[in-house]
Design a protein that fits this description.
By secondary structure, this protein is mainly α. The chain is built from five helices and two strands, in the order H-H-H-H-E-E-H. It folds into two domains: 61 residues, Orthogonal Bundle (Helix Hairpins), CATH 1.10.287; 34 residues, no CATH class. A hairpin with a 4-residue loop joins strand 1 and strand 2. Helix 3 packs antiparallel against helix 4. The longest helix is centred in the first third of the chain and has 15 residues. Keywords: Ribonucleoprotein, Ribosomal protein.
Length: 130
C-alpha cells in the first residue's frame, strides 16, 4: 500500500490549526531534535543493512568454525550504535510525538483525528450510527 505522505506534510506546513504547529521560524523540516536523531538513525540503519545482515548470518552459522564466528563478532561491534535497527523509534511526522502512532499515516492519534475531523485525510470517515 503506497501512501503519499508528502501531500499531508505540505498541508500541515501551511496550516496553523494543526496541534503542535504555529506560525514560527522553521529552520529545517523536522519538528525537533528528537526527530532529527531518529531520521539519522533510520538513514544509518538503511546504509549498513546489507553488511550487518551478512555479518550476523556469519555469527549465527553453526557450520562455520569458531574462529570465523569470533571475527564476525568483532566486525559487528565496529558499527555505530545508531546503525542498529532496534534504536529506531516510530514518531509522528508532524509533531514528533513517540506514542500513539497510527501506522498507515505515520501520525500520532491526536493529529490524525484532527485532520480526519476536517476531511484532510482521504479515505477516512467518521463512524455514524442510526
Amino acid at each position: 500500500m503506497n501512501l503519499n505522505i508528502t501531500n499531508v506534510g505540505k498541508f500541515v506546513w501551511k496550516s496553523q490549526s494543526v496541534p503542535g504547529y504555529g506560525f514560527q521560524q522553521v529552520r529545517n523540516k523536522w519538528a525537533n531534535w528528537l526527530m532529527i536523531r531518529d531520521v539519522k538513525r533510520r538513514r544509518m540503519s538503511a546504509e549498513n543493512f546489507l553488511e550487518r545482515t551478512r555479518i550476523n548470518a556469519m555469527r549465527r552459522n553453526d557450520v562455520l568454525p569458531v574462529e570465523i564466528r569470533e571475527l564476525a563478532d568483532k566486525d559487528i561491534n565496529k558499527f555505530e550504535m545508531n546503525a542498529i535497527p532496534l534504536r529506531i523509534n516510530n514518531r509522528c511526522v508532524i509533531t514528533s510525538r513517540p506514542r500513539g502512532i497510527v501506522p498507515e499515516w505515520c501520525m500520532s492519534r491526536i493529529v490524525w483525528r484532527h485532520l480526519a475531523d476536517y476531511n484532510k485525510l482521504s479515505g477516512v470517515q467518521r463512524a455514524m450510527w442510526g
